[in-house]
Amino acid sequence: MRAIYLVPAGLVLVALGAIGGVAQLGHSAAAPAPASSPAVTRQVPVTSAARACPPVPGGGAAPVALLAGGAGPTGAGHSGQVELTALPPAGQPVRATGPVRAQSPGALSLLTLPGTTLTANTATAKKDSPAAQGWSVAGGGPMAQGLEAELTQGSGLASVRCAEPGSDLWFLGPGQLNGGSQVQLDLMNVDSTAASVDVSVINDGGQAQAGDDDGITVPPHQTVTESLSSLAHGSSVLTIEVHTSIGRVAADVSAESHGTTSWLPGTASPSTQLIIPGVPPSGSTAGLIVADPGTSTARVTVTAITPQGHIRPFGSQSVDLPGQSASYVALSPLGGTTAALQLSSDVPVTAAVLVPGGTGPGVLTAATAPVSEQAVVAGNTSGDGMAASVLLSAPGAAARVRLTEIAPASGGASSVTASQVVTVKAGRTLATPAEPPKGAKRGSAFALVVTPLPGSGPVYAARVETRDRSTVISIIPAASALTTIGLPPVRDSYGAISPP
Fold it and tell me: Do strands 363-366 and 399-408 pair parallel, antiparallel, or not at all (unpaired)?
């Protein structure tokens, strides 16, 4: 046990007096700031950003849509770079080709990362078998600003956002009874120090035992894959928390049914107030997935924010949820209109919406934060029966937003852009079509940038992609992609005196 030393009060006062004298001597030439001076937060450019793209199911080539360096050509001519490098499976030697570099700032890059195979026999794998390898996306200098990367389909349509590293990450999705028969968690470490990860799972039956999923070590610049399929068996929903006690990781979760993979978007941490944007019209009933990770019963009130105003899909009833439980609740079609869901609870909860669409379990949209500065969805397509739209919701004051589309040009220029300004009425949701700008290369994907304008109220956004006007095949909730960060002022202050 460490010895505890008691310092007489007189010595503490002497020490404070001495430090105060030194502080005054060090600043004798500067006049003290008035006590009433407001604290000024200084905005500085983002100079470093990191994302991690999950392994491609089956170990094939990985198409990635990437936008960096801000929207439009403003970043052109400045230094900086984005590099994508392999994150091999922990303990398995994987050989990949050299780093793939992004194109010019402000231009949409459509990259194909090579497929990977094991290059040597191991105790658990055969030579040339598929490798569950993630990819690091690292931006430096001006190219770190507004960085967004997404794993895509061959057409350039985003399937899942490449995750941002963190220490507490949440995911909600279907269990076996809703089509999530095979559930896989990918943990990727983009840093130079090992991370220690604990995984907690809640299903219909309450807190599930995660087996050996506590204290998982993810080595630096490597990927660890864990199966959660046993915890999905016999359940309708899963809630997954990824928490690190050392370091940080990026994480992605996939659910497979009959050979079709769906990705679970990360959802906001538990809160008493949540907004789920991007709930599209649906021919069949969507479902609300809500989880209460605490020990107290949650009483959740659900309001749909639609183009016509507020609708209570459950009437005056609330969704009551015991502590440490998760539930799937069918939603009414909401009048066949687009919406965002606003959840209010007396204890912190987290939530997502499962929308029927295409094949497999369906597509998900999840609770997210309002757009700050700008948000980017890099992988969008249009034409041949495909259509993209942006769902914007303003739960409070009216919002005013600039929408910018960026695409590879058909001529000699690297890219073309188009923009429009739209207004979302207070307490309303607005659906706006998104199309490639004029002069875009035929059949190419395009990026979408959502920028709240000065004076705008809080706005939540999601990109929804449909096929044949009615089948929802992709939803990407918009997440902020910052170009600047605020640094609080630094002031002289006295902390504690710690004895040796």
Answer: unpaired
Q: What is each CA distance from 154 to 13, 84, 273, 470, in whole angstroms?
A: 69, 18, 37, 21
* 193, 249 Cβ separation under 8 angstroms: no
Q: Which residue has the tokens 């309450």?
A: 206
Contacts (Cβ under 8 Å, ≥6 apart) of 34: none
SS3 214: coil
Which pLDDT does position 142 carry in this prediction?
87
- Single out the residue of 212, 286, 274, 200 nearest to residue 244, CA to CA: 200
The whole-number pLDDT of residue 98 equals: 57
Task: Say how many C-beta atoms besides its own lie within 10 A of residue 363's C-beta.
Answer: 26
- 158-165 mean pLDDT: 94
How many of the other CB atoms lie within 10 Å of CB of 242?
Answer: 26
Element (H, E) at 26: helix 9-26
Which is higher by pLDDT, 423 or 181? 423
Residue 304 — pLDDT band, cuts 50, 70, 90? Answer: very high
Asked if the 375-486 domain carries CATH number 2.60.40, the reply is no
Span 208-224, average pLDDT: 81
Q: Which helix (H) or strand (E) holds 171?
A: strand 168-174
d(CA 163, CA 473): 20
**Residue extent(s) of CATH 2.60.290 domains in the chain:** 375-486
* Average pLDDT score over residue span 283-294: 88
Token output for 61: 């080539």
- Of 212, 193, 345, 171, the C-alpha closest to 275 is 345
pLDDT at residue 93, as a whole number: 67
Q: Find, among 333, 301, 336, the residue nearest to 320 by Cα.
A: 301
**In the structure, what pLDDT confidence band is assigned to residue 123 with cuts at 50, 70 and 90?**
very low
What pTM value is reported for the model?
0.85
